[in-house]
Amino acid sequence: MTKKEQLSRAPRVKKEMPKKKRGLRTTKSRTSRTNKKKATQKRKPILMPLTKLDNLVWKITSLAFRLQDSDRQGFVKCCTCGNKMYYYKSDAQLGHFKSRSAKWTKFLRKNLSTQDTKCNKYGAGEQFKFGKFLDRTYGAGTAEAMMTYANKPEKFGRYEYKKHLLENSRILLDEAKSRRLYDWKSGMAKWELDFLEKLDDYNIDEEIIIHKQRV
Ligand SMILES: [Zn+2]
Predict the structure, then answer these.
(1) How far is the CA of 129 from the centre of ligand 1 (A)?
(2) Residue 122 C-alpha to ligand 1 middle, in angstroms?
(3) Rounded CA gap, 62 and 10, in Å?
(4) Do 66 and 166 fall within a single domain?
């Protein structure tokens, strides 16, 4: 073997060794991880992370109540300035009277109404006008009741999320059906639409699995 050959062979051997080792180790550990994962999934699906659940309930609530606030053609007035707009994909937003950081009132019909961006975003929700609107619509004292309800000391947990999810999903489907307005479906993921399609199969007192996760 010439010196040149020795030099060119030596690094090749060195290179092959760790490559094989790495390959073996990776394959083995990946397989065992997958098996473990499969076994866990068979036993019980994982819990849906609360942020994902919160986003899902909000997405459905926002569509359901904007649709409910709108007329037969899907046009809705901002509750704090009267500006008229289309409920979907214009500047229509579902605004909160008591801010969205309070969970007990975050998805509650009487704390929510459609607003335009001017009032909801740039007007920081126009809370004073919003409160007047609530009292006019649902009766005197509603705004105050919302403030009290928002501060409930009990924990807002998965049961409460589940309750709002099922109730507001039902509203979304009923309001969409009565107006024959389904353009909102284009903004939904397949798993979200699958859930809505099977809504009648779900029960508040039973385990709910969405997107292969427990709610
Ligand atoms: Zn407005």
Answers:
(1) 10
(2) 10
(3) 67
(4) yes
Instruction: Report every protein residue that has its C-beta within 5 angstroms of ion ligand 1.
Output: 78, 80-81, 83, 116, 119
**56 and 37 part of one domain:** no
Compute, in angstroms, the gap from residue 121 CA to the centroid of ligand 1: 10
**17 falls in which pLDDT band (50, 70, 90)?**
very low
CA of 79 to the centre of ligand 1 (A): 7
The answer on 62 and 35 residing in a single domain is no
Count of domains in the chain? 2
Domain containing 207 equals 50-214
pLDDT in tens, 109-155: 999 999 999 999 987 889 999 999 999 999 999 999 999 999 999 99
- Concatenated DSSP letters of 3-31: HHHHHHHHHHHHHHHHHHHHHHHHHHHHH
Would the CA dihedral through 155, 68, 64, 120 be positive or negative?
negative
Enter the pTM of the model: 0.80
- What is the CA(73)–ligand 1 centre distance, in A? 20
More confident call, 154 vs 22: 154
Same domain, 96 and 167: yes
Contact 213/165 with Cβ under 8 angstroms?
no
